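Progress report, Aim 2. The chain analyzed during this reporting quarter is listed below.
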Amino acid sequence: MAPGILVNKATSPPALKQGEASKPDLRAMFRDRETLELHSSGGPIDEDSLGWLEPTSKDTSAEQMRERYNRDGYLWVKGVLPKDDVWKMRETYLEYLPGLTERWMQPGKLRRKFGFQDQNTEYIQRMVAAHSEKWYRDFCAHPDLQAFVKHLTGWEDTTLLERSILRPNVPGGGTTQVHYNQILLRAGPPTSITAWVPIGDCAANGGGLLYLEDSVRVGQQLEREFNKAAESLTEAERISAFNETMMSTGYLERDSGKFSKAWNRRWLCADYEAGDIVLHNPFMIHSSAINEEERGVIRFATDLRYVEAGKPFDTRWMKTWVPGDGL
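Predicted structure tokens for the chain:
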């Protein structure tokens, strides 16, 4: 295993001195807006609470990438997957739902457990069934992505956890609320690595993932507190993301702006492109904003999780996702 690639001890960059470095100009990438405005399910995220992810070329040395991953808790890598393969995946998914697009891709019908309050049973059936289709399974197991994870980690071999969720985020719809992944992977050690894969381009205001700056140590602190509070629970209750010490949804907060101010950290956003991936630590805190992309582009993405082959992990994740599976 590569040294330090999945260290549990948080390593953070030195604090900036006043005036040492200014924030990126948030207006530069949105010429038709005076400011970049993002909103979570709980309200607006102030401009002062926003920043930009640092991109990394896939040709960067593995040593440099490991250093960035351990320092920042994430690694946004450009062009890992062939663009044509990503666009083909998006096209296939939309074709898989012929005639349904106008009916189910509407604000308010998604999220909150994937919008299953919507009574469109055909949509529900197809959305669930898509996770077992060969074209989706093949995309998740894309050889370029697996090879990159091995290259970065230095693992001799990787195990891709079977459970993943293909997530649509429609303009004006719901969001992914504030959380870190180890909440959902507590039956194993915090040694997994997640690849968030946008399926198509996704502008900064298009509902892509936001990462809370320098938040690995925050996630570690919160998990210690949750574990302390759960000492009297049974083992099954303790590993549940929905136990009595947690919010009923397993999340930390629905108001991303409020959360970032409480911890005095910025949410880092990006203009993602087809072929990009973001790798992140199991304690890295993240969320998404409401999709407010001006052209009405639907954001599609999936989350893939890897562990080192032969090492302990949360075996509950070796099954295809279905609604109500307890994770």
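Residues 177 and 228 are 23 Å apart (CA to CA). The domain at 47-317 is CATH 2.60.120.620 (Jelly Rolls). These observations will guide the mutagenesis work planned for the next reporting period.
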